[in-house]
Design brief:
Blueprint lengths: L2 H4 L2 H11 L4 E5 L5 H10 L3 E5 L3 H8 L10 H9 L3 E4 L10 E4 L14 H12 L6 E4 L7 H11 L10 E4 L18 E5 L2 H12 L5 E4 L2 H31 L4 H8 L23 H9 L7 H27 L8 E5 L14 H11 L4 E5 L5 E5 L2 E6 L5 H5 L3 E4 L8 H7 L3 E3 L10 E2 L1
Helix pairs in contact: 2-8, 6-7, 9-11, 9-12, 12-13
């Protein structure tokens, strides 16, 4: 018996709506994941309603303005003109939605434990307006069991049953902001359903916008797969960070070592050292599995060790900077430091979990006379999670550069004129630079 035969009339009705583009799509959370997703559904011909509690985002979208650097405002304006995108803070309008997709943050609390408050509070709101035939999909990264345990229990308190009255699925976001090679539509989309019927409906939804869906046997497999992707990166970055510190003591150039190892055509993938992990995923997601593992009396030593190494990297950069200043007879308490780049990766404006923020905090905590930053993608640096900076980006003029005792290149944006920076700076602490190959003091 095929899966299609098992589907009831309700399943067929929603799938037919999706196929005909008459299904109404709702995206909760209009950030780096939710907004691109909403745009793609709109471009595919669906009417999309975006929900967010941030009134400023909603107003900008209504005016046709993008607040995410790599998303052109023209894309939003085109969808507004064709009446295929609408943004609101009014969650009562969830009653009109057929397919609800949750794209909300899942940070860690101060004790490095999962904070699912955004997702679970949204689920409670959805439950208030839940009606038969709706599809609910979670895209936020989380531990296995969030969808089929935590969310399902909240939704089933309404009296409706998942897989029978409504459909529940998990499809992890794989967004890589400003990646020119991959987009929402070209990245394979992993999808796990609570039941086979849930999977069938969710696959139909994502098949309407992506080139390749990857169905898996359960929501837990999909949740675990996303964690594996990010843990893999975290562990390998920690390895190369540790080797960076070791090879520095051995007077071996880690960058040359990596380039040499890359010549092997199999069995090796290059990872590079950095000042610390950034972004919402890699510094956070591994600890979701660490926390969940405790339920099974299991200690994830490998994951935690990688976290320790990566968390230490800003302190390593701090010490290298102190040493370089001391060589020039400058104490940290008298030093004026300029940090280049506060975004967590090159050529984006996203500062979530950026190691640069920790560096600024460390320089200030060590009594630096003056600490500033320059980042063309982040003109102002205000309160952000555990940081409470009130700073403005400094223009990279010859006069400004010469005023600092040390320039620390933390994020290597493409727009920086490195030859100009080299010419006008007293001391540069730098990460990998392939072109041009600057070597003054490398942290």
């Amino acid at each position: 018996m095929t899966l299609r035969v098992l589907l009831g009339s309700q399943d067929m009705s929603l799938i037919e709506k999706i196929t005909s583009k008459s299904a109404r799509i709702g995206v909760i959370g209009l950030g780096y994941v939710g907004l691109p997703l909403a745009i793609e559904f709109g471009k595919a011909g669906f009417k999309v309603k975006g929900f967010d509690i941030d009134c400023s985002k909603i107003e900008q979208l209504k005016q046709g303005q993008s607040y995410i650097q790599h998303i052109p405002s023209e894309k939003i304006q085109d969808l507004l003109k064709s009446d295929r995108l609408y943004a609101t803070t009014n969650f009562n309008e969830l009653t009109e939605i057929d397919c609800i997709i949750i794209c909300l943050p899942t940070p860690l609390n101060k004790n490095r434990e999962p904070d699912l408050s955004y997702v679970l509070n949204a689920t409670k709101v959805i439950a208030e307006y839940l009606h038969p035939g709706q599809l609910i999909v979670l895209e936020s990264t989380t531990y296995p069991g969030t969808t089929d345990e935590d969310m399902r229990h909240i939704l089933e308190e309404t009296g409706f049953e998942a897989g029978k009255d409504f459909y529940l699925a998990y499809s992890p976001e794989r967004e890589d902001p400003n990646n020119q090679n991959f987009s929402v539509t070209t990245i394979p989309k992993v999808v796990g359903g609570y039941t086979p019927q849930c999977l069938e409906v969710a696959i139909a939804l994502y098949n309407s916008i992506v080139s390749n869906t990857v169905p898996v046997s359960s929501t837990r497999v999909a949740e675990a797969a996303k964690l594996l992707e990010n843990i893999y990166r975290s562990v390998n970055i920690a390895l190369v960070n540790e080797l960076k510190m070791l090879f520095d003591k051995m007077d071996i150039d880690i960058w040359e070592v990596i380039e040499t190892a890359k010549t092997k055509p199999f069995g090796f993938q290059a990872f590079y050292p950095g000042p610390g992990l950034g972004g919402h995923c890699i510094p956070i997601d591994p600890f979701y599995l660490t926390w969940k593992a405790r339920e099974y009396d299991f200690h994830t030593r490998f994951i935690e060790l990688a976290g320790e190494v990566n968390t230490y990297m800003p302190y390593y950069v701090l010490q290298k900077t102190i040493d370089a200043l001391n060589e020039r007879g400058i104490a940290m308490k008298n030093a004026q430091i300029l940090v280049l780049g506060v975004a967590y990766k090159k050529d984006v404006a996203d500062i979530r979990e950026s190691a640069s923020l920790k560096l600024i905090e460390l320089f200030l905590s060590k009594g630096a006379k003056r600490v500033d930053y320059s980042d063309p993608h982040v003109p102002t640096l205000n309160e952000h999670r555990k940081y409470s900076f009130q700073m403005q980006s400094i223009a990279l003029t010859a006069v400004n550069l010469a005023a600092y005792d040390c320039v620390v290149i933390s994020t290597n944006h493409s727009v920086y004129d490195y030859k100009f920076i080299l010419k006008n700076s007293r001391l540069i602490m730098i990460r990998e630079m392939r072109s041009p190959r600057l070597i003054l003091k490398r942290w």
